[in-house]
Amino acid sequence: MDLGLKGKIVVVMASSKGLGKAAAMEFAKENATVVISSRSQEALKLTKEEIQKRTGNSDVHLRICDMSKEHDILSLFQFVIQKFGRIDVLINNTGGPKAGGFSAVDDSDWYNAFDRNLLSYIRTARAVLPHMKKQQFGRIINISSSSTKEVIDGLILSNTFRAGMVGFSKTLAREVAGDNIMVNTIGPGRIATDRVAELNQLAADRQQVPIEKIIQKSESEIPVGRFGDPEEFAKIVVFLASSANSYLTGQSLVVDGGLLKAL
């Protein structure tokens, strides 16, 4: 299948590692022009070199961007438009908020999670939509969490703001569908990333058991019997963001190996 991504301008947020990096790698394999971003210049340089080496695609660019800072977001997209004249695909991604239940978080945690995990996605969409509407083409993929379908105990901030993201994405998708702009949300289940490793370690510490026991139990709950690979998740992101997806919009999908029982 031709995904129609060759030469498309793709911006992947928070892409120096984890799911963002995996997505950037897959877009580079499709010969897209890929702009990666994160808060760390050094991490971005290493990721850029790795992507270019593994894919043979030299059209990979980097830009510093802290998703919680409006100025950084505006600067990033000004750079993209000035350099390329357009933007075709936006992959919204950011690290998960502080873990913990209701009593473990205070007002500052709530504000920080709102800024980083919801308002940042709103700001990036605001930055790209005028250009996507002008060219009558655009794809926005909001990476979220499986908590959009089934809340996760001990992650009250994620449960709250990921749900808000789905409401935002659904509403936006309906507003811009007539401009050939598709907006979808996709949530990872238990994918082998640093975030999942962090949550596994927190569970092990809380239960005072070896982390291997937590991992074994977790994998036994997944019907396919293992954690997902970031590349597996990224391939679905790339399809949703491609020209091959011309009709699916406003959806909230979960990639979880069959873990969730919710309909």
Automatic annotation (TrEMBL):
<dbReference type="GO" id="GO:0008206">
    <property type="term" value="P:bile acid metabolic process"/>
</dbReference>
<dbReference type="GO" id="GO:0016491">
    <property type="term" value="F:oxidoreductase activity"/>
</dbReference>
<dbReference type="InterPro" id="IPR036291">
    <property type="entry name" value="NAD(P)-bd_dom_sf"/>
</dbReference>
<dbReference type="InterPro" id="IPR050259">
    <property type="entry name" value="SDR"/>
</dbReference>
<dbReference type="Pfam" id="PF13561">
    <property type="entry name" value="adh_short_C2"/>
</dbReference>
<protein>
    <submittedName>
        <fullName>3-oxoacyl-[acyl-carrier protein] reductase</fullName>
    </submittedName>
</protein>
<dbReference type="InterPro" id="IPR002347">
    <property type="entry name" value="SDR_fam"/>
</dbReference>
<comment type="similarity">
    <text>Belongs to the short-chain dehydrogenases/reductases (SDR) family.</text>
</comment>
<keyword id="KW-0560">Oxidoreductase</keyword>
